[in-house]
Specification:
By secondary structure, this protein is of the alpha/beta class. It folds into three domains: 190 residues, 3-Layer(aba) Sandwich (Rossmann fold), CATH 3.40.50; 62 residues; 111 residues, Arc Repressor Mutant, subunit A (Orthogonal Bundle), CATH 1.10.10. The protein is built from 18 helices and ten strands. The strands form three sheets. Strands 2-3-4-1-5 form a five-stranded parallel β-sheet, with helices on both faces. A three-stranded antiparallel β-sheet has the order 8-10-9. A hairpin with a 2-residue loop joins strand 9 and strand 10. Helix 1 packs across helix 2, helix 14 packs across helix 17 and helix 17 packs antiparallel against helix 18. The longest helix has 20 residues.
C-alpha cells in the first residue's frame, strides 16, 4: 500500500482510541439534543483532520446532517466569511428566507470585496454576521447536526468574528460544532474567538503524539508489512507525528529503499537516499516562521539534544531571546524540555534542518560549536567530533 502525500487516510487511523471516544460521546450528546463544541488542537500533521473525518463518518452512520467546507489553504487571500459561507450555504438555489438574504448580501461584494472593507458598509457586515449565526441555528432546527470547521488558524477574520458572536449565546442545541487549529501561530482574532468559546464551555481536545508502538503500527499498516529494526527506528524518529510517518514511508517507497529481509519483514536498504524527504519535512514545519527555523537549524548542529546556553553562544544571541523563540518552537511541538536540556521531538525534522544548511554554513557552525563546548567543559570526544565536521569538505550527514 503506497502512502499518499497528504493527510493520513481513515483506513490507517491508529492510536487515537481515546480521542475517538471523546468525540463519540459528544456526538451522542448532540443526537440527544444537547449542544456541544469541541476545539481540536495540535501541531501540524498530528492528525486533526483524520479525527474530523472520523466524526463525519460516524455522524453519517447515524443519519446526522454534516456541514463541512474542508480544510483551509495556506495560499492566497481569503475572502471575508469564506469559511462559514462554504460550510453553511447550500450548493443549490437558496431554499429559505435567511439563505436568500445572505446570498444576496454576499453577491453584492463577490466581484469587489474591497468595497466590503469601506466604512459605509458596516451595516452590511453586521447583517451578514447576524444572518450566518441565524443560519447555523436554522440548520440545527432541522434535526441533529455536526458542523466541521477546520484550520481556524488559516481562516478569515470575518468568520472568526461570527464564531465569537455565536459563543455569547453558548452551544446550539442538537448541534456538535467541531473546530481544529494548530497550537501556533495564534493571531489576535483567533485568540479572541477561542477564548470566547472556552468561556462558553467548549471542550478542548489536544491531540498528542502517537506512542512509539502506535507510530510503528501506523508505518506497518501503510507498508502492509512488518517493519525491520532499522525501519522501526526511523519510524520512531518521527516523534509520533502521523504526517511525518506518511512522508517517511512515501519517500522510502518512491526511492525504492524498502526491501524484504530474511525474516519476512520490510527494511530500509542501506546507503539509499530517501528522495525529497528532507524537503518535505522542512516544508511541513515552515509555518513556525523563518526566525524559528533558523534557530532550530543551528540547534540541529549541536545534536538531538542541547543546552540553551550552548545554543545561545553558537547562535550569538542573548539567552532571553533564545528562550522567546524556543517557547514558540515548544508550543509548535518541535522541541521539548527534558531534564535541564532541550531535545528535538522529531529526529527526522532535525535531520532535515541540518541537511538544509549549506556545507560552508554547516562547517562554520561546527567550528563555533567546538569552541563553545570546549569552553563549557564538554568531553574531548564531543569537541573533536565537531572539529572533524568543521574540517569535512564533503560530509553531508549529521
Amino acid at each position: 500500500m503506497r502512502a499518499e502525500d497528504g493527510a493520513v487516510d481513515d483506513s490507517v487511523l491508529v492510536g487515537r482510541s481515546v480521542e475517538v471516544e471523546v468525540l463519540e460521546t459528544r456526538l451522542a450528546a448532540a443526537v440527544a439534543g444537547v449542544g456541544t463544541v469541541v476545539l481540536i488542537e495540535g501541531e501540524a500533521g498530528i492528525g486533526k483532520s483524520a479525527l474530523v473525518r472520523e466524526v463525519a463518518a460516524s455522524a453519517g452512520r447515524r443519519g446526522v446532517h454534516v456541514f463541512a467546507a474542508g480544510t483551509a489553504t495556506d495560499r492566497g487571500p481569503v475572502q471575508p466569511f469564506a469559511l462559514l459561507v462554504r460550510t453553511l450555504l447550500s450548493l443549490g438555489p437558496p431554499a429559505t428566507a435567511v439563505e436568500r438574504e445572505l446570498a444576496g448580501l454576499i453577491g453584492k461584494y463577490r466581484e469587489d470585496w474591497a468595497r466590503w472593507s469601506s466604512p459605509d458598509q458596516t451595516l452590511d457586515r453586521t447583517q451578514i454576521e447576524e444572518l450566518l449565526a441565524e443560519l447555523l441555528h436554522e440548520r440545527a432546527a432541522n434535526g441533529p447536526s455536526v458542523v466541521l470547521l477546520e484550520d481556524l488558524h488559516l481562516v478569515d477574520d470575518a468568520s472568526l468574528r461570527v464564531l465569537e458572536r455565536l459563543a455569547a449565546g453558548g452551544a446550539i442545541p442538537s448541534t456538535m460544532l467541531v473546530a481544529t487549529t494548530r497550537t501556533v501561530p495564534r493571531r489576535p482574532e483567533l485568540v479572541t474567538a477561542v477564548a470566547a468559546w472556552t468561556r462558553a464551555g467548549a471542550a478542548p481536545l489536544e491531540v498528542p503524539a502517537l506512542t512509539p508502538p502506535a507510530a510503528v503500527e501506523l508505518g506497518e499498516r501503510l507498508l502492509g508489512s512488518r517493519a525491520g529494526p532499522v525501519l522501526r527506528a526511523r519510524l520512531s524518529a518521527a516523534g509520533g507525528n502521523p504526517q511525518f510517518i506518511v512522508d517517511l514511508v512515501t519517500a522510502a517507497q518512491e526511492s525504492d529503499a524498502v526491501v524484504a529481509d530474511a525474516d519476512g519483514a520490510v527494511e530500509l536498504a542501506g546507503g539509499v537516499v530517501l528522495r525529497d524527504l528532507n524537503q518535505r519535512l522542512s516544508a511541513r514545519v515552515a509555518y513556525v516562521g523563518h526566525e524559528a527555523l533558523a534557530l532550530l537549524s543551528i540547534a540541529a548542529v549541536l545534536g538531538s539534544s542541547f543546552m540553551d546556553a550552548d545554543l545561545a553562544a553558537v547562535a550569538e544571541m542573548p539567552e532571553d531571546e533564545i528562550w522567546r523563540v524556543l517557547r514558540h518552537c515548544s508550543a509548535a511541538g518541535l522541541v521539548q524540555a527534558r531534564g535541564g536540556r532541550l531535545t528535538f521531538r522529531h529526529d527526522l525534522v532535525r535531520d532535515a534542518l541540518y541537511a538544509g544548511l549549506t556545507p560552508a554554513v554547516r562547517r562554520d557552525l561546527h567550528r563555533r560549536a567546538s569552541r563553545v563546548l570546549f569552553e563549557a567543559g564538554a568531553p574531548a570526544a564531543v569537541v573533536q567530533e565537531h572539529l572533524a565536521r568543521a574540517d569535512d569538505l564533503h560530509g553531508e550527514t549529521c
